[in-house]
Amino acid sequence: MDTYLVTGAAGFIGRSIAAELLARGKKVRGIDNFATGKRDNLRGLEAMDFIEADINDAEAVATACRGVECIFHEAAIPSVPRSIEDPVASNRAGVSGTVQLLVAAKDAKVRRVVYAGSSSVYGNTPTLPKSERMQPSPISPYAAAKLSGELYMQSFARVFGLETVILRYFNVFGPFQDPTSQYSGVLAIWTLKMLAGDAPTIYGDGEQSRDFTFIQNVVHGNLLASEAPAERVSGQVFNVATGSRVTLNHAIEIMSRATGYNGEVRYAMERRGDVKHSLADISLAKACFGYQPQVDFREGIERTVAWYKTIAKSSNSQAGSEL
Ligand code: UD1
Questions:
Q1: Does 293 sit behind a cis peptide bond, omega within 30 degrees of 0 on the bond before it?
Q2: Is the pTM value of this prediction over 0.85?
Q3: CA nearest 63: which of 128, 148, 113, 5?
Q4: Protein residue with least CA distance to atom 10, ligand 1
Q5: I want to staple 87 with a disulfide (CB 3.0 to 4.6 A). Which of 110, 141, 169, 255 is the partner?
Q6: Ligand 1, atom 27: nearest CA belongs to which residue?
Q7: Is 290 left (phi over 0), alpha (psi -120 to 50) or beta?
């Protein structure tokens, strides 16, 4: 049976891809150094062969790639503001780690690498929706690292014939996203706050918009991209999103209904390096590998809120049983 490797397997997106592969009866190996991934995220993935290591560890990555058919490369240090605080760490994980993985993949004769790219590479260019034909214009070090990773993917496809597919994710959210860090995705932070009855904060006027993409859409896009014929996808870039956008002000309204929160909303200064509007053209992914969004924003929020409620309940009851 084919073996799949997921890098960043203890992270939000990596663990979600691994879970779906296992549900489909596939053999899965995972690698993560827990820099931002969580041990708790591995719950339910016991059938995965897990390696705790950094993707910059040449030996560990070579072992991880052995006998692998396809890699889903999700390992990175996410967050625009974190990359502004520490561009070196962002580069080490996102760029050096990617090159290390590609070398190991080529040496192990892996067939395909599907790469987690980011909508951040489009920057603040005024044209909407963002199409893959547009010139990238990264603002943050995070975006610069994600774009460098893309270029290495394309280089390895051209020079070594390794099949590589680049998926540019647009603001992914859903179950298993860590809500506890200042660098967490906005919807995870807000869900946790609103469920606790605390005021969410909007940076800026709240009129910035995002193509918020529920995790199931991203998992679906990855699996399709791993199966599509090479001549349709290899060396190419695809947006993976919903093709619609929501302003932060509107998102708060929808989330208030889903969480039952009716307290105040705080406004604070706009964040440095922030993109104003983000919306994807998803027609290329549709045409080349049949991608269709499965879950829209509203439903995604409902499912996310339901999941965080279950987690809160189970951690309360665990705390209770320890008393
Ligand atoms: C960017 C990328 C995204 C990538 C992510 C990785 C763009 C358009 N998107 O997301 O594809 O996956 O980096 O981390 O570049 N905000 C608040 N209140 C909060 C927290 C955030 O108002 O408490 C605001 C931010 O200022 C921003 C928006 O919410 O305007 C979204 O922020 P965040 O969730 O951090 O993601 P992006 O930086 O948009």
A1: no
A2: yes
A3: 5
A4: 171
A5: 141
A6: 274
A7: left
Our answer on whether the CB atom of 80 is closer than 6 Å to any ligand 1 atom is yes
How far is it, in rounded angstroms, from Cα 214 to Cα 295? 6
Mutate to test the pocket of ligand 1, among 90, 142, 271, 279 (most ligand atoms within 8 A of CB): 271
Enumerate the β-bridge partners of residue 209.
247, 277
Query: Cα(73) to centroid of ligand 1, in Å?
Result: 21
List per-residue pLDDT tens for the chain, 323 residues long: 899 999 999 999 999 999 999 999 999 999 999 999 999 999 999 999 999 999 999 999 999 999 999 999 999 999 899 999 999 999 999 999 999 999 999 999 999 999 999 999 999 888 999 999 999 999 999 999 999 999 999 999 999 999 999 999 999 999 999 998 888 999 999 999 999 999 999 999 999 999 999 999 999 999 999 999 999 999 999 999 999 999 999 999 999 999 999 999 999 999 987 889 999 999 999 999 999 999 999 999 999 999 999 987 777 665 443 33
